[in-house]
TrEMBL record:
It comes from the Eukaryota. Transmembrane segments: none annotated. This is Flj13639. InterPro entries: NAD(P)-bd_dom_sf (IPR036291), SDR_fam (IPR002347), SDR_member_12 (IPR052992). Coiled coil: none annotated. SUPFAM superfamilies: NAD(P)-binding Rossmann-fold domains (SSF51735). It comes from Oncorhynchus tshawytscha (Chinook salmon). It holds the Pfam family adh_short.
Length: 327
């Protein structure tokens, strides 16, 4: 297949998959096979960190965990929004072990500082949920000169996870869950042009590439840190601000708004991955959708990358991350 035919095939296959698997009705039909008991567990004594916990999927996840007695560290960039969400979660769950930390994941040096300070202050972290994510409509750079979508969605996740791995490894039955997106199915890992300096800036495609990079990071971490259970997932198409207000996707939200999932439906697999015993029996590094392990590639798609390409990406990330590490 030529490049244009391939990309047409890939985009149509993706949209067809989305219409049959990512909508609210697809969730309801998948939910008929869910095992209700999987989520009937107490999380008392377990410590969770959730990024972007003030809104959408992250907030619904925080609420579900709070209701089961878990301690939740909400990592958010906006103090007012975070405190408001915290107050709602405490009120509705009756759980007071909910803490707010202010961090903008696009500020690379601050992510390092935050991870180091958290590790010094707290004795345990059982779960890290990398949920925060953003779509940029225009190319912009942070104080370190990194493109902001990359800084938030990739470098922020890399540094936070890498920085907290020693604490996770000291804690009981640690897990790391990253909320990726089905959008990554149309992207093959690219290690060149990490800062999108070359070519036109298409915010949706840049985001999709970053979501592919999250899948690769998860697969690689699973290989190098065998005592932590890693997973990465797609929540489906969910009615949240990231979709509604993203200038990059106004048409998508307008045309799909009646078929989008609720934040709770979008959070269902995150919660299942975070608390169920069933999830821990699945191989570490897997990709999930509606509580099922699924392929991270479309049939026939040329999105697979070799072990060597993936390792090269991780080594580029490590070198770049280290240049911003506090001494
Ligand atoms: N909604 C969907 O259809 C869909 C589909 C596939 C994947 N996802 C993924 O699901 C995850 C959660 O998104 P959502 O749908 O729940 O949207 P949302 O309600 O807009 O939540 C996104 C969260 O990320 C936070 N965030 C964004 N950039 C940040 C930064 N630089 N530093 C710290 N926090 C930041 C936001 O903070 P503010 O509230 O301050 O903006 C918000 O709390 C994202 O990773 C998204 O890519 C969503």
């Amino acid at each position: 297949m030529g490049n244009t035919t391939m990309s047409l095939y890939r985009n149509s296959a993706w949209f067809l998959k989305g219409m049959t698997e990512f909508t609210r009705s697809a969730f309801l039909s998948a939910a008929k096979h869910f095992v209700e008991k999987d989520l009937e567990v107490s999380m008392a004594g377990r410590v969770f960190m959730i990024t972007g916990a003030n809104s959408g999927i992250g907030r619904a996840t925080a609420m579900a965990i709070a209701k089961r007695g878990g301690t939740v560290h909400m990592v958010c960039r906006n103090k007012d929004k975070a405190e408001e969400a915290r107050a709602d979660i405490v009120k509705e769950s009756g759980n007071k072990e909910i803490y707010v930390h202010i961090l903008d994941l696009s500020e690379t040096r601050k992510v390092w500082e935050f991870a180091e300070a958290f590790k010094r202050k707290y004795k345990a972290l059982n779960l890290l949920i990398n949920n925060a994510g953003c779509i940029m409509s225009e190319r912009d750079v942070n104080a370190e000169g990194l493109e902001k979508s990359f800084a938030s969605n990739v470098m922020g996740v890399y540094i936070l996870t890498r920085g907290l791995i020693p604490l996770l490894e000291k804690s009981a039955e640690p897990r790391v869950i990253t909320v990726s997106s089905g959008g990554m199915l149309v992207q093959k890992l690219r290690t060149g042009n990490l800062q999108t300096e070359i070519g036109r800036y298409d915010g949706t495609m840049v985001y999709a590439q970053h979501k592919r990079q999250q899948v690769v990071m998860t697969e690689q971490w699973a290989q190098t840190h065998s005592n932590i259970h890693f997973s990465v997932m797609h929540p489906g198409w969910v009615d949240t601000p990231v979709v509604a207000v993203a200038n990059a996707m106004p048409d998508f939200h307008q045309s799909m708004k009646d078929s989008l999932r609720t934040p709770e439906q979008g959070a269902d697999t995150v919660v299942w991955l975070a608390i169920s015993e069933a999830a821990a029996t699945k191989p570490s590094g897997s990709f999930f959708q509606d509580r099922r392990m699924v392929s991270a590639h479309l049939p026939l798609a040329w999105t697979h990358s070799s072990q060597l390409e993936q390792q090269k990406f991780m080594s580029v990330m490590e070198d770049l991350a280290k240049t911003f590490q506090p001494h």
